[in-house]
Amino acid sequence: MTAIRPHHAAPRTHVTAALNFVDQGEEDLIIHVKDGAEAPDRSYEYRPTDVAITNGRAVPRRPALDWEGFALYDHQTALHDLEDEEAIRTTYYAEVEALIKEKTGADEVLIFDHTIRRSDGAGNARRSVAHVHNDYTETSAPQRVLDLLGEEEGRKKLNGRFIQVNAWRPFGAAVKRAPLALADARSVRQQDLKAAVLDYGERQGEVYELAYNYGQRWFYYPEMTQDEVILIKGHDSATDGRGRLSPHTAFDDPTTPDDAPPRISMEVRAFAFFNEEGAA
Q1: CATH of the domain at 130
Q2: pLDDT in tens, the chain (280 residues)
Q3: Residue 24, in any domain of the structure
Q4: Domain span at residue 208?
């Protein structure tokens, strides 16, 4: 059954909540990821900082993928069983691929993985991520294309514009616990982005952690339902002024009722490639 978002005559314009950032002066960030460990071992700590997070439903112009780096869309899905791996990889991947093509104008979309999360970490689901991060960096995004497609085909794709994009959707009840906060890409300075090495032992990756600055603008969408999805840019190879990435995090909304159910969500990660310059 589709979750119904309650009607509010006067929606809240913003909420103030603590988000977890790294310090501006942090350098040489390393995340040691070990099999079987409950959490990775980081060479640094997070600093909780209270920020005002704007209700994206209550602004005159909704955030857009090529401006703020993220966008909310009404989009129904035929998927209802998150334990049906085959349906996820066939039915749901096809839905997400079509959505990304429609909203970005991409000529080709390559979906390469997905993650199911629960805010309480129950079952086999991962917990929601409670620190501000971006899944890819200037280095790791193109490297991931090469890893997926191989050197020859990957280099061809990297010659044109490409974006890394996540499709984030809640399942079940409307989200009241651990909603997403998303940074306006245009308010994130390059010096705020702190590359952190993901050390798996036999291989390495890289993500961005985020340091806070007073000019950052933050958004969220209260009570998202299963009939809504957010597309979030993790990287855009274009450097023409459009929003290139939107760091994001789950956060504790202080208005969440004590009896609110856990948030259940799935994020699907993809690359979108453009034969010619595309616009979102």
Answers
A1: 2.60.120
A2: 455 555 445 678 999 999 999 999 999 999 999 876 668 899 999 999 999 999 999 999 999 999 999 999 999 999 999 999 999 999 999 999 999 999 999 999 999 999 999 998 887 788 999 999 999 999 999 999 999 999 999 999 999 999 999 999 999 999 999 999 999 999 999 999 999 999 988 889 999 999 999 999 999 999 999 999 999 999 999 999 999 999 999 999 999 999 999 999 999 999 999 997 544 4
A3: no
A4: 29-273
In a domain, 141, yes or no: yes
What are the start-end ranges of the E strands in the chain?
14-21, 29-32, 41-42, 47-55, 70-74, 108-118, 126-127, 133-134, 162-170, 180-183, 193-199, 204-210, 218-220, 228-236, 248-250, 264-273
Q: pTM (2 decimals)? A: 0.93
The number of domains in the chain is: 1
